[in-house]
Amino acid sequence: MNRRILHIDLDAFFVSVEQALAPKLRGKPVIVGGRPDHRGVVASASYEARVFGIRAGMSLAQAYRLCPQAFFLQGSFSAYREASEKFMTILADFSPGLEPGGLDEAYLDITGCELFGTPFELASTIKSRIKKELELIASVGIASCKVVAKIASDFGKPDGLIEVAEGEQKDFLAPLPVASLPGVGKKTEESLKAMGIKTIGQLAGLPLEMMKNRFGSFGLMLHHHANCIDNRQIESPGRAKSISRETTFAEDTSDRTFLQSMLHYLCERVGAELRQETKNARTITLKLRYSDFVTITRSFSTKTAVDADEVIFAGAVKLLERTLAANRKPVRLIGVGVSNLVTYGKQLNMLDFNPRRLEHLDKAIDRIRNKYGFTAIQTGRTLLLKDIFDRHDRDYVLETPSLSR
Ligand code: TTP
Ligand code: MG
After folding, report:
1. C-beta of 330 in contact with ligand 1 (< 6 A)
2. How far apart are CA 31 and CA 36, in angstroms?
3. How remote is the CA of residue 104 from the centroid of ligand 1, in Å?
4. Catalytic residue among 18, 48, 99, 105
5. Crossing angle of helices 256-276/355-372, nearest 10°?
6. For residue range 22-42, what is the model confidence (pLDDT) as tens digits?
């Protein structure tokens, strides 16, 4: 059966939320990330700012040099989270096959929804509702598999709506640069360029064996995606395969105590979501990105599935200590994730913790936080972060809801 998958991604998300809240910012170069005299990077740039060459990930200082008249905003994560929730609620009205891919993007499986209109008509209605109800612009790609839908939504930006018929998918991808394929970063792009490969069409023509030998399982995936072979199903959030939180610091740091505090906070976030989903996890993963953008992940698995904040932290901090001992480079991003999820079961004694005491403690904390907000109660270790929460928006920590699903 020919599937119809939509990929919906909001244009200049953080900035557009700010523009919806403050009309004077509309139509202007706007940057969310912080003040230009701070050391941070651009998180989101309006399309008016992109005309000056400004892009996400660029230092604020460079953005300022390119466009000093731009509005530089610190950002307010709680507003973005609220907009994201409303965005997902609109999408959920159209099909139960909804897979959020981050705050501002999602896949929607509308196969079999013909009674309500053609895929193009449904996508138009989705765009209009988002515009009317949230004052945000969405770009939509329609295809018969995820990878092509995602590339199409990106290709049409801003305010795009592109439908790629099944028989035309390969022709659509062929002329695009390899960097348009999700997962292809600077390094892969360089390696492919050295092999004389610049477009997805050229990549699609390389023999499978060659891609496998050169890039391993990632090469297999690239070969398949370049050839529009992608059977990945829509994974609804209820079936999350992993839960994670990460944050990028305004300034790179080697401060061990600070890193531990932030890690503890992120573990509390992950633990709270695990318990909300009534899941336990067998694998704990630490993610670090260094000042030179090199990113590493370190994991370990336990025999007993866990869900208590302290147990997750105990595992994660061991990984952190080991990693810091091996490498003292300043850190720009820290994250923690849990995977190998199983449905809730009694927690056995682990790492010398008393599971019943932890269960009671976590339950009590969860109750308070559900009622008064996450930062209403802080544990000893995260008190160090209080200054940050006070100085910035309380939700300063830009948590990425999920590393992978
Ligand atoms: P994106 O969808 O990648 O970017 P965008 O919505 O700003 O722009 P567009 O989709 O039109 O190209 O990311 C969504 C939000 O995630 C973005 O508004 C801000 C945040 N983000 C960061 O905080 N850091 C980053 O490096 C990136 C790429 C995004
Ligand atoms: Mg976006």
Report:
1. no
2. 10
3. 8
4. 105
5. 80
6. 999 999 999 999 999 888 899
